[in-house]
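Supplementary material to the annual report.
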Amino acid sequence: MRTKTFRIGGIHPPEHKDASTAIEWLELPRQVILPLSQHIGAPARASVEKGQHVERLQQVGECPSFVSAGIHTPISGTVKAIENLPMAGGMPQQCIVIVASEEDHAADTAAYENYRRQLEEGTGPDIATAMAESAENIRAAIRDAGIVGLGGAAFPSHVKYTLKADQRPEVLIINACECEPYLRCDDALMQAFASHIIGGIELLMKAIGAPRAVIGIEENKPESIAALAARIPAGSRIEIQVLKTKYPQGGEKQLIEAITGRRVASGALPISVGAVVANVATAFAVREACVDGTPLTHRVVSVTGEGIPAEMRRNYMVAIGTPLGELPGVPADGAKVIVGGPMMGRTAVDLRGPVTKGCSGLTILPPQTRPAPGPCIRCAACVSACPMGLEPYLLSRYGMLRMWDEARALDVADCLECGACSYSCPSGRPLLDYIRLAKQRSRK
Amino acid sequence: MILSPSPHLHTSRTVRGTMLRVCAALLPAWATGLWVFGLPVLWLTLVCILSCMLTEWAITRLMLRRSCTLGDCSSLLTGLLLAMNLPPTLPLWMAVAGSVVAVGIAKMCFGGLGCNIFNPALAGRVFLLISFPAAMTEWLLPDGTTGATILGQLKANMIAPADAPLTGLFFGDMAGSAGEIGSAALILGGIYLLCTRIIHWEIPCAILVAVALMDLCLGFPPLVDIFSGGLLLGAIFMATDYTTSPMTSRGMLLYGAAIGIITVCIRRWGAYPEGMSFAILLMNGFTPLINTYMRPKRFSPKPAEGAAK
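Predicted assembly:
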């Protein structure tokens, strides 16, 4: 099959996909910190009280409005506190802290072990019952499981998949690009649970009424491509589209263009061109929620990067709410810990902050300083790299000079902050820093 | 903990590395010049490079009291390019004057690297051409005598276009500056720069196509134009100078095509036998305008008026 790709810009940074693709299941933590806002939209409202005992997988935070997501606990225990605690990024947030007793922990561990065995052996409940449900019920199950987009944006899934009456989806696009260097959590998930992902895609197709689905995956993941291809049943309306390994292939607009050839307008949603996009990990979570009834309490997290020894670069199945510092191999200090990939991830300030739903991995890099910026030599590398067809050299100059109106006139709002411009600048100029500033300040 | 905004990766490409690679790409052509014309080329090159670097050093350190910027190697490249654009037997003091104008006026007066409007090496060359027309048009022939270049002979109707010796033009057997005679070596350097993606294909291709089309329209053999004078040197190494050329693909095509057309116009109807320097400098002046009117094609179509989001 011919590989496809988006047409404007893009870069090819060193891939560094050297972490193992096995998934290691970490022991359940004795204490979890569950932030009430792990998603875009209104923060969840705590539905438990301090001192109350909660059961594993119980809902502890409920949606106060439609655009929100519920929060569930991965462990049984007692609510120790509901208070402001620092997140990885440094900002404090309202969190529910749950502590397990020895008995709680033993019972949970047995149940968790059982769940794991079912998953790995594929002996869990069958998908047929879930597929027989109506689209509305599937969406309700997604909502009740607190599922959000797991690619990083963390937009509540049930909102995304509730389409208006006049919106006709033509294709469900599954984002399996994982175009960020280093990260391998999606790759690992696809190799381990391809059939579950295919099941999740079928459920999602039913939930939104999409006639077909296309899995967009970069060509640097041949094992995952083979695993998925082997699990797609004959006569299925799910197909795989291999894409060129190019950053940002997994950008939503770039992915839609690569697969359908259509471009989403500025400020418009993918459905305006008949597409709905979901991450592979989201599809997996949807399957677990609808078939098994397991809410989103775990996810696969990569811990990788040159800052840790090669044998420690692995993927873990982790309880959401586990403090980042408790993940194996995370150094306490002396390295740069990035939540997410190296192109768009944010550096962690506080490793007491928990793994959240949208956390795809930790990229740990050796302490490095940015190159000292030199003058812009107008080499046009940033213009060639920008996947949105913008002029980063000019926008960043406008940001530097506080010329917000001029930046707005040159479509700074289209910037997806992928970092391709800063990456490609031979003068080491911090282009994206100033473009971000211009983008925020020029917003009307 | 170490904090920094994304992205956390950075290309290994640097300004210094880019400049040095362009210098490396120029070496085959320079070596051709050295081989054909001998040691004068070496002295001229050393004098140009040293005086370009010294000018930049004096201005940044002694006049502006800023940190030294020689490390970016841009004045090294300017010196090398200037030397390759001058007659090998030019008196060395003139080469010094040209270097001072190139770096001191065309580059540093505008704010240094990245801020100049005109290509410094070409500004230096044109300054010399206008100031010292006799010395700047006295060319060494490969046999050691002096005479006119092929373009000069064509301009004076000494030979017919059809009689121009093409193989000689291609392999450097002609009068000219050290950098312009070795067409084969220049093409080699150009291929290297294209493969390493240091230059964009748009500018050299647009120039060559425009020159070839113009010549075909005028009934002039296109290869004679392309392989003579500074056309290849200009198309591959001078017009592609980052700072003074447009930023977008469309802009580069327009810029290149205009350079090609202007060059042929000067060569056929102008007072000078050679037009490449003037054409490039002229279009350098238009570059800001081209950048303003030929923006890159945006990814996102603008939402239709009144359309529901």
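The domain at 1-26+105-368 of chain A is CATH 3.40.50.11540 (Rossmann fold).
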